[in-house]
């Protein structure tokens, strides 16, 4: 029985969530550098470590806004506002503090954190049960027998843990259908449209009947006239949206289990003191 359990953290999802939860906090270093997002990030991280008791932890990051998806579709995520000024200096600082905990920071230019998470999850699920900590529902496509997706909900320590059974029960779909849904409905937060006029209810009904986009396309004559017309009018965007939604699980990154063994090194205390975060180390049970 293999009892390794790895927590893979979606770094940006946690950092942004922490920033907006803590944006009114005046936490700063003596030189004025803000640390409110880092403080919240560490709270979220340590809460999850206490809850899921991993033997291993790794953290994945976006490495800039240009990726293979923006090359395919220039409007991809073009609706995202610039990062708030107070958050920008915390991007590199948080990685230093994560590294001080002995947690590998994983990221590669040209790909999103999602792609790194997908790739590393698949690699490590051979040797460990994987728990992906995120707020991003797109990750549900990665659910497998040994890969769980932990969606953070409102409030600290509040999670929805998706395995194959709960995904089917809660969303009515299988993991691969998460991609098919996005192909049909698009994704407003990532700024790609899918098929105009097809919402989640219709998409879900179509997928329950025909299983996949390919299944729908080969049975177009048996769907209603209006749905058929919508799909035919947006065929190229349907295929593009599905491609944009699919997490790439063959990114050139690797992380060995040995690199991400979880144990707080003694020197972490020095770094936490330096950034006025020492009180957080008490959270870890």
TrEMBL record:
Q: Matching CDD domains, A to Z?
A: H3TH_53EXO (cd09898), PIN_53EXO (cd09859)
* Keywords in alphabetical order: DNA-binding, Exonuclease, Hydrolase, Nuclease
Any idea where the 5'-3' exonuclease domain is? 4-263
The family database entries (SUPFAM superfamilies) matched by this protein are listed as:
5' to 3' exonuclease, C-terminal subdomain (SSF47807), PIN domain-like (SSF88723)
Q: Name one Pfam family in it.
A: 5_3_exonuc_N
PANTHER family named among the record's database cross-references = 5'-3' EXONUCLEASE FAMILY PROTEIN, FLAP ENDONUCLEASE XNI
Question: What protein name applies here?
Answer: 5'-3' exonuclease
